[in-house]
């Protein structure tokens, strides 16, 4: 692919322009990274007030699959990426007919479907050295009937459209499983064995059109109610051997599907003898990830910088983390007191703590559970970062820090 260098004027007489499908916070942070390099940006999203659309040079306001909108985006851009997982793969295919698109439609389609995703992880297991949790595909009543008993208790997950723990039901026995599948309207699902998690981690890699790969060290993640609450990013955050295995596995998962762009792979760390060597691959996201937001303040190159470099065909610098970090996710809940009354968080107190970096996404409507921003905390060492994180979490009433 021909590189799209920043600061150039294209044959259309406009500055080099990068586009993004989707207008959420990930798109907003991508737009900021692209603009810093001098690119013009275009966001395609139906919401006129979308976090990314509000900060982009141009905003195509149509549904994501709209033919006219896609034509307009293609006409304005030199390369396109995506910021949300459920972007219609067909839209990426349409765009790819006229310009570079990263990640490609086939990889995104695979990440959108847990059945295909798990099949890929399983096919990679010999090379990646990491396998998936035991599972069964449930698409028919016959498959429901023949689920092996050792998968229970388990978690029934819809094959498509799941995020932040949505589209999932925990089931203890066959009767609950049948009821859960009925409640999920008998759409294609996977039943996964409930694993004894010791911890969770994720790895972010970037791969270029030329096949070069760089990655960040694994970060340890704490979820509360199925949503990411805290990310720990410092060398002692998890055992070294597991850290290396997770990083190697992620790079090989990206290589084997010829992935281009930023990819995040989530892992479970388990304590189950050694059948899985303590590490299980959960799922992948074909884009920057909430668990990589610390890279914005703790690394010399962020996950969004790498997204820009990969899609534009620029060299991929190996990122270097210069500070230990903790990220605290800020959900809409911070905008309410313990009686459910709206409040303004005490930013004065938070911002007077050393090493705090506040990122808000420009969303005006603070609903509980809605991702409104995040707070990165950097410091000289992990203990210093943890001390400040505790203070910030106290002020804001944030959960998950002691898990
Ligand atoms: P997100 O988009 O936020 O990553 P998701 O809706 O795609 O979430 P998963 O990542 O599959 O869903 O699961 C959400 C969380 O539920 C996991 O991070 C983990 O805490 C828990 N979980 C999922 N599967 C299992 C399992 N098999 N055993 C134990 N816990 C699990
Ligand atoms: Mg997940």
The CATH architecture designation of the largest domain is 2-Layer Sandwich
- State the major sheet: 10 strands, mixed
The secondary structure category is: alpha+beta
- Fill in the CATH topology of the largest domain: D-amino Acid Aminotransferase, Chain A, domain 1
Order of helices and strands: EHEEHEHHHEEHEEHEEEEEHEEHHEHEEH
CATH class of the largest domain equals: Alpha Beta
| Overall average pLDDT | 95
Radius of gyration: 21 Å
Commentary on this structure:
This protein is an alpha+beta fold and 403 residues long. The protein folds into three domains: 17-101, Rossmann fold, CATH 3.40.50; 134-193, 2-Layer Sandwich (Dna Ligase, domain 1); 197-396, D-amino Acid Aminotransferase, Chain A, domain 1, CATH 3.30.470.20. Helix content is 29%, strand content 25%. It is built from twelve helices and 18 strands. The protein has helices spanning 25-36, 67-76, 89-96, 105-111, 114-128, 141-145, 174-183, 240-256, 295-298, 303-312, 347-351, 382-396, and strands at 17-21, 40-44, 58-60, 79-82, 131-132, 135-138, 154-158, 168-171, 189-193, 197-207, 213-215, 219-224, 227-233, 261-270, 279-285, 325-331, 356-360, 371-378. Strands 5, 10, 11, 12, 13, 14, 15, 16, 17 and 18 form a ten-stranded mixed sheet that branches. It has a four-stranded parallel sheet with strand order 3-2-1-4, with helices on both faces. A four-stranded antiparallel sheet has the order 6-9-7-8. A hairpin with a 2-residue loop joins strand 12 and strand 13. The longest helix has 17 residues, at 240-256. It is globular and about 65 Å long. The relative contact order is 0.12. The model has no long low-confidence stretch (mean pLDDT 95). The chain binds adenosine-5'-triphosphate (ATP) and magnesium ion. Magnesium ion is lined by residues 266, 282-283.
């Amino acid at each position: 692919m021909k590189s799209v260098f920043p600061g150039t004027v294209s044959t259309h007489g406009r500055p080099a322009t990068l586009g993004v499908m989707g207008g959420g916070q990930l798109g907003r942070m991508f737009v900021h990274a692209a603009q810093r390099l001098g690119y013009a940006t275009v966001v395609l999203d139906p919401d006129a007030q979308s976090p990314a659309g509000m900060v982009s040079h141009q905003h195509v306001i149509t549904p994501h699959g709209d033919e006219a909108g896609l034509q307009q985006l293609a006409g304005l851009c030199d390369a396109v990426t995506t910021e949300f997982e459920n972007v219609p793969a067909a839209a990426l295919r349409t765009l790819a007919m006229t310009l570079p698109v990263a990640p490609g439609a086939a990889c995104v389609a695979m990440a959108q479907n847990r059945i295909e995703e798990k099949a890929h992880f399983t096919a990679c297991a010999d090379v990646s050295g990491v396998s998936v949790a035991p599972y069964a595909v449930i698409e028919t009543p016959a498959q429901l009937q023949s689920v092996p008993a050792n998968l229970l208790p388990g978690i029934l997950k819809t094959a498509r459209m799941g995020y932040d723990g949505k589209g999932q039901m925990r089931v203890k026995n066959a009767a609950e499983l049948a009821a859960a599948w009925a409640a999920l309207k008998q759409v294609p699902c996977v039943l996964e064995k409930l694993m004894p998690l010791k911890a969770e981690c994720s790895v972010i890699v970037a791969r270029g059109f030329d096949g070069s790969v760089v990655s960040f060290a694994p970060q340890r993640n704490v979820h509360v109610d199925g949503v990411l609450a805290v990310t720990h990013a410092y060398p002692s955050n998890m055992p070294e051997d597991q850290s290396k295995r997770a990083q190697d596995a992620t790079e090989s998962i990206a290589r084997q599907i010829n992935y281009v762009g930023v990819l995040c792979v989530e892992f479970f760390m388990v304590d189950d003898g050694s059948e899985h060597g303590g590490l299980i691959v959960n799922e992948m996201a074909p884009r920057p990830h909430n668990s990589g937001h610390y890279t914005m303040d703790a690394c010399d190159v962020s996950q969004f910088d790498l997204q820009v470099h990969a899609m534009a065909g620029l060299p991929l610098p190996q990122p270097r983390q210069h500070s230990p970090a903790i990220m605290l996710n800020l959900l809409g809940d911070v905008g309410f007191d313990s009686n459910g009354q709206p409040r303004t968080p005490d930013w004065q107190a938070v911002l007077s703590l050393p090493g705090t970096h506040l990122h808000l996404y420009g969303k005006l409507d603070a609903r509980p559970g809605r991702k409104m921003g995040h707070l990165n905390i950097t410091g000289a060492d992990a203990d210093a970062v943890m001390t400040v994180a505790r203070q910030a979490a106290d002020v804001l009433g944030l959960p998950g820090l002691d898990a």
